[in-house]
């Protein structure tokens, strides 16, 4: 039987940490060699991390990335290696190096450069123009990168027609809820249409607003999944591909020969087939299938952990309001960093209900995290006195409410500055959309864990956490059931200012995630006046979001790098 | 004599204000018709404003833009009109409409789509593929858009070879210091290389981080400037172009005929030549040539005014520290909005020098602006007490300093929220680079006027303002001469934490504006350790800048939309 042992190393690179990334890559090469793999592949730009953005304007960065590649190439002994890097000559390319026997055997340049949503590849890269096939251990392999696999003809079909029997598509594909299904369908189609083994390798880990979810996959030529990597964790997925079976199924393709060119696909010899006796592979454990809610929760945990750790922090603090958003943020942080690395701070004011404090204390007791209580009344009165002449004769309103939120922001930031702990903000996507948050107040902090989580999903995640993670029922029942309130004035409720969240979140999903406009949304059956008001409110609050902390993207469109709106503009529908 | 009367309307569109923009365009059409112009041109995307960004994802926006275009087309009676809009069918294009006799005669699609710096056109637009020439009033005219004119061959040369005698290049080209010289050289070359009249029409006015400077130009076929529009102001630049002179100089080109195609350039008939008796044009006043400093000052005034006004504010407030940054910000705001629309707020603390208050009072007296004094001691003591248990046993440092800055931010924002006045922040580019600013403290506010002005340029601008604008010497001598200090602890000076500004600003210019890296900068003769420390400090403070207020770009590269750096990254050189 002619077979090929393919290893996919889904690793967590850190942007700019070239030496750290190379160390990790070399470790995985050793691991795959021990398993007698013919080829081990690493994600898109695994050497630099993704996205490196304007770091790619630094000549030293590009040079060091090439030097780092050399270190990887040298490690390709007794195994072939495919690794993503930035090819830099007169232009720069999003590239995959193919190395074997300690030598660079070829470089593939990504052809389709996504420039939409969170992607800006046309800003940086020139597109590739060749469709090579590499013969590795006697087996013709098509290498391509991420977006390349989403197109039916070029490059995959061309590479297949040039004789490729296995497609290795390397990715740095950021997670959002529902994306894995799209990937599966796309790769299954690519495999079965071309009658080719198709491997989808994804990066893993958080990078600023993005989280890569791994979940790499290997498909057989019928488009069925042979093996699947873990979600949100580093993993080495190794699989034996039966090439004799493939040959039976693809008789229409010519038997390709080294050095020849079939159409646009040039064939490059990397390494000959060698008879090896190798140990039988243990089947890769099938990862537990995460449900939608579990998957989002895990994305939040991973993204939160990596933002904190990759920025050099070990501990975080969170203002606990007694509400559900800060409760969920505390759960995520605790699961990401450990209870000893999370501090809750409760900052009662004259408008805080006693229940809010009790609920926060109970939450932190449940999670086992420390809690500090710092009443803000002294500062609150001081501000009132400081501004009493200027505010004389005015009616108390948003100005007075925001003062309290900003005092709390100041307290949290003072603790952050004093002890070098990172402040996590707690606002959710519904609030961020509607500007129902105080700039420099509750919006003050380094990372906004729930920034892309709609309020209705916050409830869902809390209930899921309570039912599925230890300690069970960490979020007190009272926090889940009480009506949301900012508690910045007596008897305040979110419902006084905002539409009901179940309706609001549907309109926001249509407007923000699905990019529908007023006319399209009202045809879905929502009240036209409410839709109009919602859209205008979202657009008018762009100025707040421009100054918001970065936060994790978990939906198809988040407020952040993937959504670019002007501030000064007058089209509010 | 065969001549063509060309009018360039450099107008200030507002993004998304389709009706407002159309009103303005129609007013200028009337104005140009009264002057018997053959053609009046408007800037790139004059109908939608530039850049409309993700507004272009809204079908209603695209539709309304097309309807707005129809209103402009209908106004093209007795005059031809060229106007920038967004052409939307299955794809969207950055487009110029050519209208005459109330009808749409043609549409040109921009060919070169900039996707670098502040430009993201590949995200939105598909590139054009045709090179039409329009015969307007019997004269063959090449229309193209912005970046198109920066390429020697396509489209301009192709349009010239198809018979064009006049090039009308419409722009929304954002200002930065030194850019006008590049534009002049480029257009002069385009004109003389092609022996063609070449008109460069630019938009005017501020749009978030960008300011368009106008300064439109018309070149003769020898590459000399015939006429020039005002800088930073709306203007209608009208000029009679002597086409007989042109014919003598371009005998090598075939006499073109309507309907024929020369190479790739298709010729489209718009309107026949008509003998008109027309009044002699008064020569366009030659705008005063602004020096470099005056030009930057004017950019700041224009950008500040438009950000405030286009966002619906009329009045601003500024924290006056007694330092030069807030003094210059107050000058710019006063010149932009009028003294009655600027409020200074001085917020002395226990660490403020008496001189700081006096200097701020004198500054506001000189400018004629109101000043409020709100001492922050009550809140400062309150915070100290609130945190005394948590901070017990620690050494006072940045945490204690920042508390004061954040109290001031809270005061300014409370006034802003109470009276609906916009807070202008006062930090300069050198501070923003080095993170020498307090998040949610002095960084709190809606617009950062000096965000792209290096500290050394702040001094230059103050001296220029004192010498050239009334009231003269508004910035007190003491503010200009005292050593910069944040006054957050006793005897604090910027020089304790930062390199001398004259050296620092040179390193920052090399690193940020010129994109040089460590190795390149030390070859310029700077101390390697200082360069290393500066670069690392700039990169590590990306997290602060991600939450900074938007501010005006005045250099070739600003912190903001044109510079995209990851936060979590480890390449610090």
What average pLDDT do the residues of chain A reach?
A: 94
* Count of beta strands of chain A: 21
Q: Provide the structure class of chain A.
A: alpha/beta
Q: How large a portion of the residues of chain A is in β-strands, by DSSP E?
A: 15-25%
Q: How far do the termini of chain A sit from each other? A: 63 Å
Overall tally of domains of chain A: 2
Largest interface: A-B, 87 and 87 residues
- Major sheet characteristics of chain A: 8 strands, mixed
The helix content of chain A is 25-40%
Shape of chain A: elongated
The oligomeric status of these chains comes to homodimer
CATH fold call of the largest domain in chain A? Nitrilase/N-carbamoyl-D-aminoacid amidohydrolase
Q: By CATH's scheme, which homologous superfamily of the largest domain in chain A applies? A: Carbon-nitrogen hydrolase
CATH architecture of the largest domain in chain A: 4-Layer Sandwich
Number of helices of chain A: 20
Give, in spatial order, the strands making up the sheet with the most strands of chain A. 13-12-9-8-7-6-16-15
Name of the CATH class of the largest domain in chain A: Alpha Beta
